[in-house]
Amino acid sequence: MDELTILCIGSFFKGNAFLRECKRQGCRVILITIEKLRNAAWARESIDEIFYMPEIVLPDVTNAVSFLARDRRIDRIVPLDDFDVETAAALREHLRTPGMGDTTARYFRDKLAMRVQARDAQIPVPPFVHVLNYDRLRSFMADVPPPWMFKPRSQAGSIGLKKVENSEELWRSLDDLGDLQSHYLLEQYLPGPVYHVDSIVSEKEVVFNIAHRYGRPPMDVFHTGGIFTTHTLDYNDSETQALFALNRQVLGSLGMVRGATHAEFIRSNRDGQFYFLETAARVGGANIDELVSAAAGINLWAEWARIELAHLRGEAYVLPPTRQEYAGLILCLARQNRPDLSAYDDSEIVWRLHKENHAGLIVTSPQLERVQSLLGTYAERFTGDFLAVLPPSTKAEA
Predict the structure, then answer these.
(1) Which terminus of the chain, N or C, has fewer Cβ atoms within 10 Å?
(2) 164 and 221 share one domain
(3) Same structural domain, 74 and 150
(4) Which of 173-176's residues contact partners 24+ apart within 8 Å by CB, and which partners?
(5) What gap in Å lies between CA 297 and CA 323, rounded to an integer?
(6) Residues in CB range of 1: below 8 A, 6 or more apart
(7) Are residues 136 and 62 in the same domain?
């Protein structure tokens, strides 16, 4: 087979392991990113061509990629971030390149679309309504007691989420949005612990999954500040198996064919039931790829690349051997420009975050209890040693 060309779209700096695996397998790698990331630490030794744009937006990127395709055969288009999923789908549709198209991409980006599809597949989701028809909105607020979550349909993670306590507060928010109201949904707020399941899917089959529980819901950390933690669940626990089953049901109903996914679920304090919150057709953010690597011994980015290339070559993807250890991740904003974590010297530490004004560690152990104990101790120490609290951002940072 001739040399394969993989075009990666990266609005944010991530995915070096994907780039390296593609190059290791003999592919030609092209990266389109933004000017702001010109000096980022991309794996340049694994990139054949890199192009910069002020912003990666349609139709500009369609014209740019179409121009490149005049003398380059592009075999696959891969988004490196959640914000690039729909862009990559539009490019595939335009170039008729195999992979996830516009409709399926909406299920993995649009919080309304994924909820409607999940509900229709009998998957438990919190009660919700599209912010569109005012009569339906009034009926929802009359039937579903507050508080509610006011959510943008196509942002990532906790960006733009707002907890609404009463109808007057909602109507004021809608007045502020004007014509942008229809880009939101309103959902019942369900108190309870939040979990994430990270998966590898090959030809519609979930060939790997691992479940973790957040210490505090990400929305709470994002909006009020504090320490972010997450740790692996007991592999044999019934809670874990229930999450795996629900995750498979979600991915099947949304039409996931191949790649890496990150899904979030909440267990309601009210009835003890798991509810689907959202999913994404990409590797989880906040260094969750490093967390999974520490617990299971595989790199989600590299496996995603292997799946794409196996399909291109007509080969069967084979998951490499994995392990079942336990890992925990702790992160926070730091007062210091370059936090000194040298006093954290437990042998279980396997990874340290190197990012300005951030402190972070990953620990791993064969015993879940040891991981939980370390995270609890470190959370107290991080609060005194590093923690800074800033107002929540209204947009993602590149």
Answers:
(1) N
(2) no
(3) no
(4) 174/131
(5) 6
(6) 313
(7) no
104 belongs to a structural domain: no
Is 327 in contact with 363 (CB distance < 8 Å)? Answer: yes
CATH classification at residue 145: 3.30.1490.20
Report whether pLDDT(398) > 90: no
Closest of 203, 181, 190, 96 to residue 145, by C-alpha? 190
- Asked if residue 306 and residue 226 are part of one domain, the reply reads yes
Bridge partners for 194 per DSSP: 266
Angle (CA) 129 132 135, round 5°: 80
State pLDDT tens for residues 273-329: 999 999 999 999 999 999 999 999 999 999 999 999 999 999 999 999 999 999 999
* E strands present in 165-273: 184-188, 194-202, 205-214, 228-232, 259-267
Decide if 119 is inside a domain.
no
Neighbours of 184 (CB within 10 A): 23
The pTM of this model reads: 0.93
Give residue-wise pLDDT tens across range 47-105: 999 999 999 999 999 999 999 999 999 999 999 999 999 999 999 999 999 999 999 99
Q: HSE, CB side, 13 Å, CA atoms: give it for residue 55.
A: 5
Instruction: Say yes or no: 141 and 220 in one domain.
Output: no
